[in-house]
Amino acid sequence: MLLESHSIKAQCCPTNSTKEDSYMVYDVTSYLDEHPGGDDVVLAATGKDATDDFEDAGHSKSAKELLRTFRVEELDASSTIIPELEISSKKEATNYSQKLMDLTKQYWTIPMAIVGISVVVGFLYLRKK
Ligand code: HEM
């Protein structure tokens, strides 16, 4: 099982009894504030296989049923890297350089205006002399 909260994902309970088979991904973002055991324990279980954490807490049958409502996808256990985490870090890198490009495009007029004003002022100053 992978618990996902915002950009963080955690692994937990396999869909069946053998841990090696596949993992379910759960988006628990909306449940963090409501969790009777507090949001900190759920967040601490993110980014890893959270199966044991969930099982060791001795959750009731209704808690397990509730968990099912947060399913978002099934992952093959052979994938060691959580795809969403890879994607989000790539996105951040792209966004950063993209933002820099946008700022450069947006604000190129400011240095140009300063140079232009300086030239005009300098020209007027020289003409006065
Ligand atoms: C999305 C996943 C989770 C769901 C839906 C969930 C749901 C619940 C629910 C409904 C309860 C109330 C008692 C019960 O019915 O069993 C509970 C209690 C508790 N949960 Fe979770 N839980 C989740 C994840 C976790 C994780 C990862 C931990 C980590 C250790 C955890 C630790 C606890 C603890 C310690 C309690 C007992 C709180 C108390 O009695 O004071 N839970 N949880």
Automatic annotation (TrEMBL):
One of its GO terms (molecular function) is metal ion binding. Residues 21-76 form the Cytochrome b5 heme-binding domain. SUPFAM superfamilies: Cytochrome b5-like heme/steroid binding domain. It comes from the Eukaryota. Keywords: Heme, Iron, Membrane, Metal-binding, Transmembrane, Transmembrane helix. The keyword Iron applies. InterPro entries: Cyt_B5-like_heme/steroid-bd (IPR001199), Cyt_B5-like_heme/steroid_sf (IPR036400), Cyt_B5_heme-BS (IPR018506), Cytochrome_b5 (IPR050668). One of its GO terms (cellular component) is membrane. The chain crosses the membrane at residues 107-126. Pfam families: Cyt-b5 (PF00173). The keyword Cytoplasm does not apply. Belongs to the cytochrome b5 family. This is Cytochrome b5-like. It comes from Durio zibethinus.
